[in-house]
């Protein structure tokens, strides 16, 4: 807000808080830092410096209590693999993301593994990349939103524990990138019509059908196992699983990550 700008210290502290809410918020850090560097360089170093204290304090406390960091989880998942393990993971994640996003653009339900869904997703990625690149070439500077998208793509390509809900936070920025490209190639009226059509077609075909046919409350995948654990084990019973946070929530029992050695 130009009338009441946030100080670099305040922005940095909020970035630290966002990391505590979700470590994946790290992808927002370079985008915010870039915005300060471009518009208010005097506040840039303050923003960077104040981003770290809260995460560092949390990590120090977590390690002292025997906690598990996200970096440790990634190393555990790809333990014993060469760098090809990361390449393989990135390829699988890219294909999954393209299929999931692609099928959301189509006028009929289709599996995310279908070639048509994958091609539609790739077309969306290419359109977003072209829009961000065109804006960069015109302004000779990266937009914070483009940095956020690039950082998010890098993080979620190498992250082995991957879920489709991770894509939701990128939708507004993908729309922005596509919009940037369309408005430079066509009129704003034509760009608006194209985006409105792309949103309306799947909404009135896929979305309404899903709302009508699916229950509003989704039953957990292992609901019977969770119920059995709650009813047949003491509250002090200790378990280990790959999805220890989720399983602990549904079982109301303490869970640890699977051992790594």
Main attributes of the structure:
261 residues, mainly alpha
Task: Tell me what the structure shows.
This protein has 261 residues and is an all-alpha fold. It contains twelve helices and two strands. The protein has helices at residues 8-21, 28-39, 41-50, 53-64, 70-77, 83-103, 115-139, 144-158, 171-185, 188-213, 223-232, 244-251, and strands at residues 239-241, 255-257. It has a two-stranded parallel sheet. Helix 2 packs antiparallel against helix 8. It is globular. The N and C termini lie far apart (51 Å).
SSE inventory with pairings:
Layout: H1 8-21, H2 28-39, H3 41-50, H4 53-64, H5 70-77, H6 83-103, H7 115-139, H8 144-158, H9 171-185, H10 188-213, H11 223-232, E1 239-241, H12 244-251, E2 255-257
Parallel strand pairs: 1-2
Helix pairs in contact: 1-3, 1-4, 2-3, 2-8, 6-7, 7-9, 8-9, 9-10
